[in-house]
Amino acid sequence: MARGDFIVFEEFADQLGKEMHNFSSDVIKLAIVTSTAAPAAGDTTPTYSDYSANEVSAGGGYTTTGITVPVTWVDTAGVAKLDDNAGDIALAQNGSGFTNAAYGILYNSTEATGAAIGFIDLVGPVSEVAGPVNINWHTSGILTVTVN
């Protein structure tokens, strides 16, 4: 099943200016939440804890606090890119899995507040019980920052 676009929280620009992320060493995770925790690009100072109360249940291929997403931060000719080292996320169908996923919240689990970077609309509800859940990052990377 196709998934929606990755949306960067507007607050991410401020986070970069405050050096809240060190993508060469921080642990980045994707927490999966229900529609009760619907995020928006303009959410003020978004953190993992803003959405964690509505995280899907652990089980199947999913664990509480999310899936670790190994990333690199590469700058080439004025374009910095957050890229996924391990490729796309694939959760196999599992009878013990979640049934009500709506969004994936990408956040920095190393940063003290769990600063959220952005989110992806899973076009849900999505069920790990009903079938595999695949999240395919854009071929150009998770996000890019271009300096003009």
Written overview of the protein:
33% of the residues are buried. The chain is 7% helix and 35% strand. The model has no long low-confidence stretch (mean pLDDT 91). It has a 5-stranded antiparallel β-sheet, with no helix packed on it. The chain is built from 2 helices and 10 strands. With 148 residues, it is mostly beta strands. It has one domain.
Total individual domains: 1
Helix tally equals: 2
Choose one word for the global shape. globular
Report the C-alpha radius of gyration, rounded: 15 Å
Order of helices and strands: EHEHEEEEEEEE
Low-pLDDT residue intervals, each spanning 5 or more residues: none
Percent of residues in helices comes to under 10%
Largest sheet: 5 strands, antiparallel
Structural class: mainly beta
**First and last CA, distance:** 36 Å
Please list the strands of the largest sheet in the order they lie side by side: 1-8-7-2-3
Number of strands: 10
User: What is the mean pLDDT?
Assistant: 91
Percentage of residues in strands = 35-45%
